[in-house]
Specification:
Number of helices: 5
Number of strands: 5
Order of helices and strands: EEHEEHEHHH
Strand order of the largest sheet: 1-2-5
Radius of gyration: 23 Å
Oligomer: single chain
């Protein structure tokens, strides 16, 4: 995977359990996610947390909605025994079904944590980057005040 570019069809599996480590007759559930979001997708996820009330015109925050949209933008596919209906047919991967998943199970919570981790902005090593304070030190202030300025 490129550090700068991802293909639209690129995807990464998140396994419910490692079939090589867990002895089970049942295969693991697998959720396939995007390696990381692009700027447009990230902006859409962030904007989902806010809406304008039609009556008052006030901005309202709904941070739960942000998690749902984040899942909808990143979950690309799924497979496994818990992703089939009573007839054994695969449950479709769509926005409505993804919304139903959010908050439903510890495995899905782990998938959402993985999505969040993969999409955290990386800190720059460049001291002139806007995500640093310009100090190469441990965060302590580099400002030195001469004793003559503080002496009375």
């Amino acid at each position: 995977m490129s550090r700068f570019f991802t293909d639209a069809d690129e995807r990464e599996p998140i396994y419910e359990f490692d079939p090589n480590e867990v002895i089970s007759d049942t295969p693991p559930n697998v959720v396939w996610i995007r390696p990381r979001m692009n700027l447009a997708q990230r902006s859409k996820a962030q904007a989902a947390a806010f809406a304008i009330d039609k009556n008052s015109g006030e901005v309202e925050a709904d941070f739960g909605r942000n998690g749902i949209v984040l899942a909808q933008l990143n979950i690309l596919d799924w497979e496994g025994p818990d992703f089939v209906d009573a007839n054994g047919k695969k449950i479709p991967v769509n926005a409505k079904n993804i919304e139903r998943l959010v908050g439903s199970d510890p495995f899905i919570d782990r998938v959402l944590e993985e999505i969040a981790t993969r999409n955290k902005p990386k800190k720059s090593n460049d001291p002139k980057s806007q995500d640093t304070n310009g100090s190469m030190g441990d965060g302590a202030t580099s400002l030195s005040i001469p004793t003559s300025a503080t002496a009375s």
